[in-house]
Amino acid sequence: MTFQALRGTSDLLAGELARWEAVERTVRRLARRYGYQELRTPVIEDAALFSRSVGETSNIVQKEMFRFEDRGGREIVLRPEGTAAVVRAYLEHHLHKTQGFAKLFYLGPMFRAERPQAGRMRQFHQFGVEAVGSSSPWLDAEVITLCLEMLKACGLTDASLLLASMGCRADQAKSAERLRKRLAPHRAELCKDCQSRFDKNVFRVLDCKNPTCREIVWSEKRSPFVLCAECEAHFAQVKRALADVGIAFNESAVFARGLDYYTRTVFEVRSSRLGAQDAVTAGGRYDHLVKELGGPDVGAIGFAAGIERLLMAVHGGTPSDAADDHRAGIYVAVARPDLLAGGFSLVQRLRRRGVTALMDYEGRSLKAQFREADDARCQWVAILGEQELKTQSVTVKDLAQGSQRTIALDAFVEEAAQGVKAACHR
Ligand SMILES: [Zn+2]
Ligand SMILES: [Zn+2]
Prior knowledge:
Blueprint: H1 14-33, E1 37-38, E2 44-46, H2 47-53, H3 59-64, E3 66-69, E4 75-78, H4 83-92, H5 95-98, E5 102-111, E6 123-132, H6 137-153, E7 159-165, H7 169-183, H8 192-200, H9 211-218, H10 229-244, E8 263-271, E9 279-285, H11 289-292, E10 300-306, H12 307-314, E11 330-334, H13 340-352, E12 357-359, H14 366-375, E13 380-384, H15 386-391, E14 393-398, E15 404-408, H16 409-425
Parallel strand pairs: 1-5, 11-12, 11-13
Antiparallel strand pairs: 2-4, 3-4, 5-6, 6-10, 7-8, 8-9, 9-10, 13-14, 14-15
Helix pairs in contact: 1-6, 6-10
This protein binds zinc ion (2 copies).
The site of one zinc ion (ZN) has 8 residues, from helix 7 and helix 10.
């Protein structure tokens, strides 16, 4: 009997992981540059957190959550998205009192029971940014700018930004009426889900994945959203701020975020390398969520990006941080198996000084050890033979240049450690 990873989940092995680590490094570096601090929340949460925030009628809550009752009879879910948990943590740790305004980011797995397909997994991974505690339109511009910079730094070259404003709650009531009127002639053609969404939450029809529903929705290019004067001014300021820093956007498209909490600015980033339905990133303002989850009446905005989809869109292109195919580290090779002890003590000395050091413990031939050093992309092979052991020295071969020299053991360890130190300060 053998086991396989569950459908919609996958293992990440070293080769692919390098691209993931590059994304993670890029996200952390840029988030900090913009003053955002990392937040790590648990993978399991109270199910009610998501029905209260994402919404009872959303696809996520209705169909996609991994939900179970724990031994104490509590309704638990594997988190399907990040925003609700970030706001929960913001309130639980009283950041609204101690900091007021909080700029946070996260990285981690999310879970949705969808039909698995390319770029859409049941355990998928997101990074996201949330600025909680302000309604300033400048913040919308900052979050969108940060989002695009992160994607670009991860290697996405064809990002296109879709921008809309869904208005405030009062505007949304009017927009819903307008959208119902627009869709009414096609009501019978909509899918079964959308038939019921039509009355309960008509915006849901906008992000239905059914092809017929999409065709009906996209046949109308004008935005269904009506904005009051304040929301109009807010949106105008967001667009001005983006234009000022040279960010192009497209606001003619019809789209809405399928989560209940969105208000005012919503945005998506798409790539031509993904299908038309799949955004790399989605985000927006959620000015009522903090209050609805029991906190003060403050605005917030954020976005989340799918790492699997981003890597698909980058498609073999190497994120800038991952471009380190150069050789590094030291392979300690021993001429005979009885010299393993000397080799082991040398790799440990090197590792303790911060140097990457590898060796073989199987007593293989020198030739086999050299092959392994090459496969591991090591820069040097440090050979320990009987002669070297006697004179407390080591013969070092540079695999990149082919040169070779013999040097005192202590001097070698010191030189390697200084080299690492210099590399870290470059
Ligand atoms: Zn409004
Ligand atoms: Zn539908």
